[in-house]
Amino acid sequence: MEKIMLNGEYFMIKLVEASDDESESQSGRITLIKFNMTKWIRQLSRMPNISIFLKRLKHENVITEAHMSDIENEYSYGSQMEKLILIIQQSADSTSIYRFCKELRNMHPQLADLLENKNTDGKETDEYLRNVEQEFVLEFLRNTLIECLNCHIPCDEIHIALEEDLHGHVEFSALKTYFPQIFSNSTFVEGDKSFRDVTWKSPPHKEANEKVDMLSMTLDDFSTHIGDIMGQEIKPELRDCFQKAIYEEAITANIFEEMKSSQLKEVFAEYLGSINYGKGMEHVLKKLQQEIRENKLRSGIKTNIRLQQLREFDQPSNNLAYYQGAIVKPQTGNLLVPVHEFRTLIAPNKHWIAKETLRFLAACMNSRKNGTMHFGIRRDGDGCGTIEGIGMFNSKEVDEEISKCIKKCFYGEHLPFVMSCIREMQVIV
């Protein structure tokens, strides 16, 4: 018998009598995998490319975006893996646990063997996931399609709807294999782009992939469009509020695109009643402004976008001011020129800022280069960035958190050298 403890809870494994009941056997296997996750957590935390592993788990719907962000806020790989295992132990179902094992095997087969406690190259895991996939696809086809002579549906339309319903990836070959089991009279010819003699019970909801040209809209259409977006993205009650504000204030797409954060708040807050104007609303409005700017650039329309110089390396900001929406392009090409890294965040988080600063610091020290990290500037490609700004925060607390983070990751004779390599944060308004 083995017994270990994680997060104040004991996990125990002991010899038990084998059961012929498949559900009991499956439950026992899941329990064993959970136990081994805890048992081998130190080995798991030592594997390289944990960030890639987390992205794969998110892609397979094993963890959520919020889980991933929470895990990445941890400073060390050990604490990141411990938080990941706790999330899996507490909230993951059997299918998610098997997907965890499959993704782990794709990156580190030996670690997957330790978790599954078998040296079968993951055959049982693959078989379980195939059975779950088959059951889901067959159920999806039964519930969404019906036979219809001389009707047809494009293959990609069914495939996309299936993956959206599953919140995961399904190979088209699997859909093609299972389809005849439900619709034996339906035909599909290799190279054809449709399933024939079937149709939807009710058409699936489609979201427009192409961005709407807001510049060509009338005031009435533009106000309706903004209202619909805010109602969908935030909450339905906002639809009429924003539609009324746009229409009554006669805000066209061109005027809207040039509005600053303070102006957006001043105008729309009056129409919200008891609802508070928050960061979520501002974020969606900023995205819409960016869509209009991109549309202008594609159409060759001149905008009020301005270019701006960044603060010089290791120099005080003095009277320097940044303008929201301005474009910055650091000097590149010379190995002696300090590097510039851009990061954006909706809500200031001192833990995340400290973690990203530490990563940048380590990268600069390893490559023996000077550099500045800029928070509140969006990375646009080709070395350019757009100044977006961030909310108010206490810079002293952030500096303290960065020092705490450095002292946790560096120690001994190296610590004084590391501390001498970093400067205090400078806030530019």
Question: Could you walk me through the main structural features you see in this protein, from its secondary elements to its overall organization?
Answer:
- By secondary structure, this protein is of the alpha/beta class.
- It has four domains: 2-121, Death Domain, Fas (Orthogonal Bundle), CATH 1.10.533.10; 130-200, Orthogonal Bundle (Arc Repressor Mutant, subunit A); 214-299; 307-420, no CATH class.
- Helices cover 52% and strands 12% of the residues.
- The protein is built from 18 helices and ten strands.
- Helix 8 crosses helix 10 (172-182), helix 11 (219-233) runs antiparallel to helix 12 (238-248) and helix 11 (219-233) packs across helix 15 (279-299).
- The radius of gyration is 27 Å and the shape is flat.
- 18% of the residues are buried.
- Mean pLDDT is 80; it is low at 13-22.
Strand order of the largest sheet: 5-6-10-9
Low-pLDDT stretches are 13-22
- How many domains? The number is 4
User: Which quaternary structure do these chains form?
Assistant: single chain
Number of helices: 18
Sheet-strand content, in percent, reads 5-15%
Mean pLDDT over the residues: 80
CATH-derived topology of the largest domain? Death Domain, Fas
Q: C-alpha Rg, in Å?
A: 27 Å
Order of helices and strands: EEHHHHHHHHEHHEHHHHHEEEHEEEHH
CATH superfamily of the largest domain: Death Domain, Fas
Structural class, from secondary structure content? alpha/beta
Write down how many β-strands occur, each being a DSSP E stretch of 2 or more residues. Answer: 10
Ends: how far apart? Answer: 62 Å
Largest sheet: 4 strands, mixed
Tell me the name of the CATH class of the largest domain: Mainly Alpha
Based on the structure given, which CATH architecture of the largest domain is correct?
Orthogonal Bundle
The helical percent reads 40-55%
Apparent shape: flat
